[in-house]
Design brief:
eight-stranded mixed sheet, 179 residues, alpha+beta, binds coenzyme A, globular, 5 helices
Amino acid sequence: MFQKTIQEGVCLRLLEERHAAEVFAVVDRERAYLREWLPWVDGTTKVDDTLTFIQSALQQYAANEGFSAGIWRGDQLIGVIGTHKIDWLYRKVEIGYWLASNFQGRGIVTAACRAVIDHAFAQWKLNRVEIHCASGNAKSCAIPKRLGFQFEGTQREAQLVNGRYLDIQVYAMLARDWK
Ligand SMILES: CC(C)(COP(=O)(O)OP(=O)(O)OC[C@H]1O[C@@H](n2cnc3c(N)ncnc32)[C@H](O)[C@@H]1OP(=O)(O)O)[C@@H](O)C(=O)NCCC(=O)NCCS
């Protein structure tokens, strides 16, 4: 079971089915802020949608293909960080994240990423971790930069979010360069 304290009082814990209502409530409350950059927000309209997401994340975890963890401050869910499906052939993975707006600016997601990247290199023995951020999403792009990732280029109009095609910046870290 993946569980890790990342700051005093803040930890990552695997999402479980029983967390669906709480995760949905945060997404619902933060809808206007989250939908600017995340393509799945508009399609998340009821607790069942979040439950389906958590169930698929648990299947992913059971299949050793990555995981999604809640970012918890005490017992309060304040965000989610997770991996896309691990590419075992090429030993690489992509990380995604979001945080409730009122907890931004405290380094929480940077610390959460550090924990997941440590896990990817130390436990899974992957060779490469990627973070993809929209060019206009400066707060998100700052995270891989702060963690020492290399900017590798921009995929033009690679995501469709709220009817807009977004240019996506690709950042990557290799196992040999971590720490
Ligand atoms: C992008 C997002 C995840 C950033 O979350 P965050 O926790 O504020 O990001 P960080 O962990 O990098 O925090 C950095 C900020 O904390 C400050 N900070 C405070 N203590 C810090 C510490 N110990 N370490 C690092 N940063 C620290 C930094 O100065 C920085 O502040 P600034 O933005 O005013 O420069 C959040 O804004 C979000 O969820 N946005 C909407 C969804 C989204 O865009 N997801 C990503 C899609 S690719």
